[in-house]
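TOPIC: backbone geometry
CONTENTS: sequence, structure tokens:
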Amino acid sequence: HFERNVREHLVRQVLSLRTPPSGPVPLASVKAPKHPPKPPFPTVRMGSGSPDVFLAYSHADKQAVMPIYEGLRIAGIRAWIDVQNMVPGQMWEAEIRKAVNASRVVVIFFSQNSASMTGFLKKELDLAMSVASRNPDCLILPARLERVRPPPYLERFQWVDCFEQDGMERLLAAIVSWTNRKKDSKQRRRG
């Protein structure tokens, strides 16, 4: 149910960005628009290089998290996820530490699959929580993939329910709101 909602949302968003052709158009006459159309959902563009969002999840939840990752990318948010940003042979602990340090938001997905929080997931989450908790500019954002009680150390944070109809919009809104607020406060301090 959740995956279908995310897919449907993404399809609606992507389709709204496209205009249907009014007949066959010769390839030579197709020109890129000077200004791409603005998407109908909130977007944010940060400085180049650093990820905006670090995604922590149980690999058992990969099929539920990947559409969210794609949705964030469509919205112009640079998300860091291990399966897309790491290559075999990299030292995962060092790479995760770097990515969390550079991110403004750490989204921690949880479900029945991650309820026990053991193994690599536990290490990754402990590392993400440790690094993010020392960075006041970093938002820790728990995200439920299904109705499940959050782990005790995440209970103090307000979470987003990704399985709800408006879950993706709420996740995007939280990320955009936090990153814009932090960007605005830094500009005020400089000015």
Notes: The CA atoms of residues 14 and 74 lie 8 Å apart.
